[in-house]
Amino acid sequence: MPEQTAQTTAPQSFLERKDIRISFQRYAIDALGAMAQGLFASLLIGTIFSTLGELTGFAPLMDIGGFAKSVAGPAMAIAIGNALAAPPLVLYSLAAVGFAANSAGGAGGPLAVLVVAVIAAELGKAVSKETRVDILVTPGVTVGLGCALALAIGPAIGAAASSLGGLIMWATDLQPLLMGIIVSVVVGAALTLPISSAAICAALGLTGLAGGAALAGCCAQMVGYAAASFADNGWSGVVSQGLGTSLLQVPNILKKPVTWVPALVASAVTGPVATVAFGLQQNGAAIASGMGTCGMVGPIGVYSGWVADGIVPGPMEWLALVLVSIVIPAVVAWAVAWLLRRNGVIQPGDMKVD
Fold first, then answer.
1. Does residue 1 register a pLDDT over 60?
2. What is the pLDDT of residue 271?
């Protein structure tokens, strides 16, 4: 009997010794929250630099942006490894794993990085310092198995993410009201989830009226969350979510899905306002349709489209852009969040971001 108990507890003892804790909190909350910061420190800040460079014609800014965007995969993977308390050799090895997963995952790159980096980090931790040739074994296992897994499942994750494109393209054929609602909500949701709304929009060449709806949905998620969570995050939350990324809220969504309602309602409202009330078109680079207010790339894309089409925007055009991008999503999301808080559905701290 004692022998059976020892055999039963041995694996558990090993996992505890290696600090491998298989839990929803660690993988879906801690790792995902860290990944969002890694994404912002690479892809999103890089896009901001690139956009500033394109606007000013200052080539070094575009170069800086390109460098930052090129390491999105490694930055996300290393952030995940840090959240999982990976030892140094595992942490550094995750750079290659993140690059492989992000590349293989395509439009689902961030999601692929999350899945693959978590598994690779835990495998690396399991073998870390277990042999006398740790300098070879730990990076060998982490990089070898991690990259192999990326190649094996990354394309499938990317295909699943890209399948949203079919729904989006179907919606673009509908009349403006329904199209505005569906495209705004779907692309906006993709922006908040760990998949790339920007990559989806770029792959689909989503511009014109559908691009305007996508822009509205993405802005609604970012500005909407900034307004809805103001009670929990204050002005720092306005900057980090309104100009950064609403992906920071995913851990809160997983813990309490109702916290997503204000932003989703804002997307459903701003989409048809953009397409029906204002006929707002995003005719800049298609990637801008999926960027929202991240560094104001989305609104800048609308302006770039005006310039490319030879349109001199008047007061109504500017008013439409400001209302759709900022004012309406902020008001709608704040009002919905206030109602939910008043009725006790959302509690203080439910939308707090680190």
1. no
2. 95
DSSP 30: I
CA distances from 246 to 128, 224, 269, 276, 324 (A): 35, 9, 18, 26, 17
Q: How far apart are CA 225 and CA 242, in angstroms?
A: 7
- Most confident range, picked from 37-46, 102-111, 138-147, 162-171: 138-147
- Phi-psi category of residue 131: left, alpha or beta, with phi > 0 → left and psi -120 to 50 → alpha: beta
Mean residue pLDDT across the chain: 91
**DSSP H helices in the chain:** 2-17, 24, 31-39, 45-56, 59-70, 72-83, 88-105, 109-127, 134-172, 176-192, 197-204, 208-228, 230-242, 250-255, 261-272, 297-308, 315-322, 328-342
DSSP state of 294: G
**Of the candidate ranges 15-19, 276-280, 317-321, 336-340, the one whose mean pLDDT is the lowest:** 15-19
Amino acid at site 102: N
Q: Return the closest-CA partner of residue 157 out of 200, 197, 106, 119.
A: 106
Q: Which two tokens stand for residue 109?
A: 């790159």
- Integer angstrom CA distances of residue 210 from 176, 267, 287, 308, 320: 9, 14, 13, 18, 16
In angstroms, the CA 232 to CA 348 distance is 7
For 282, list phi and psi in degrees, rounded to 5: -110, 100
The structure tokens listed for 241 are: 């979510």
Question: 282 forms bridges with which residues in the sheet?
Answer: 208
Tokens describing residue 97: 């794993």
Beta bridge partners of 208: 282
Select from 120, 128, 84 the least CA-distant residue to 99: 120
User: How many CB atoms within 10 Å of residue 278?
Assistant: 17
